[in-house]
Amino acid sequence: MITHFLPPERFEAERPRLRAVAYRMLGSSAEAEDAVQETWLRAAKADLGEVENLGGWLTTVLGRVCLNMLRARRTRPEVPLDAQADEPSLAGADPEEEALLADSVGVALLVVLDTLAPAERLAFVLHDLFAVPFDDIAPLIDRTPTATRQLASRARRRVRGGGPAPESPAAIADRARQRAAVGAFLAATRGGDFEALLALLHPDVVLTADRFVVPTPRPVTVAGARPVAEGAMAATGRALFTGLALLDGRVGLAMAPHGRLRLVLLFTVTEDGITAIDVVADRERLAATEVAVPDGPTAGG
Questions:
Q1: What is the per-residue pLDDT across 266-298, written as a single tens digit (0 to 9) for each?
Q2: What gap in Å lies between CA 107 and CA 76, rounded to an integer?
Q3: Which of 80, 150, 202, 262 is most buried, judged by most C-beta within 10 A?
Q4: In 64-102, which positions are buried (b, 16+ CB within 10 angstroms) versus exposed (e)?
Q5: Are 197 and 188 in contact (CB under 8 A)?
Q6: What is the Cα–Cα distance from 276 to 262, expressed in whole angstroms?
Q7: Could you tell me the pTM of the whole model?
Q8: How many angstroms separate the Cα of 246 from the Cα of each of 64, 108, 153, 164, 287?
Q9: How confident is the model at residue 4 (pLDDT cuts 50, 70, 90)?
């Protein structure tokens, strides 16, 4: 009897795609690498004589590995926010690489995915982001294809947000103004461009930060364009893990290292610029904020 084992070079050819799937499933580059390595260890021992679609078979194995990791994660106690390091990092992870990955996927998408149940996350990621058929996903989560389709649909609604999209010309123009201003604010902060940031802010802009942001005994208020801009420049490191998000239907910023929401910035934008910024790290307020993806995925199914 001839046994057909997987040559390492064939697995390496599949590694980039598998890593992309695992990162979207787990939201952490270190965990994604662990999942891909576990997939290789399982694949290296398997007889692939009857496997016709190697990529699909490896994705299925990876899906099982990621599902187990997500379920195990939910049984671990959550680390309190004030016990975490100021600068987001994970042992064995490169913060800059992690930030680039999060930016390429979309911070808001990672935040929403982190709120989904493991089966919902698997169904949505594999089907909507990587076009895996529901018939192939269903056995991984012990559901029928119809039930799996419903899980993905429910996840898709969370990604898009529950509120209606703006329809009136005024609402569309307001959303566009928000997005342009907030996007420019993020770009200037990341790039350390003080003058560009100053130009975005109304001279009398007011920034408020709740007591969990620093933390401090009481909320902090900063008034005036220059002091607000100087404070933003001091948070350039955090901006690497920050991305555009719909926050209760308005364009804002979400900071979420490894997909875990840490704080949000809510903006008031007028024709005269950014007039107010509300920085929120209070867990109760974060939990009550609906986070969605601006112009999110629209794949159906």
A1: 999 999 999 999 999 999 999 999 999 987 443
A2: 23
A3: 262
A4: bbbbebbeeeeeeeeeeeeeeeeebbeeebebeebbebb
A5: yes
A6: 20
A7: 0.82
A8: 31, 8, 19, 12, 14
A9: low
Structural tokens at position 213: 């942001």
Task: Give me the phi and psi of 202, to 5 degrees please.
Answer: -65, 145
Domains recognised in the chain with CATH numbers: 8-160 (1.20.140), 169-292 (3.10.450.50)
Q: Which residues of 210-249 are buried (b: 16+ CB within 10 A; e: fewer)?
A: bebbeeeeeeeebeebeebbeebeeeeebbbbbbbbbbee
Give CA torsion, residues 105, 106, 109, 114, to 10 deg.
80
Pairing of strands 273-280, 201-209: parallel
Q: pLDDT tens digit string along 45-94? A: 887 767 778 899 899 999 999 999 999 987 765 544 444 434 444 444 56
As a residue count, the chain comes to 301
166 DSSP 8-state letter = P
Cis peptide before 77 (omega within 30 of 0): no
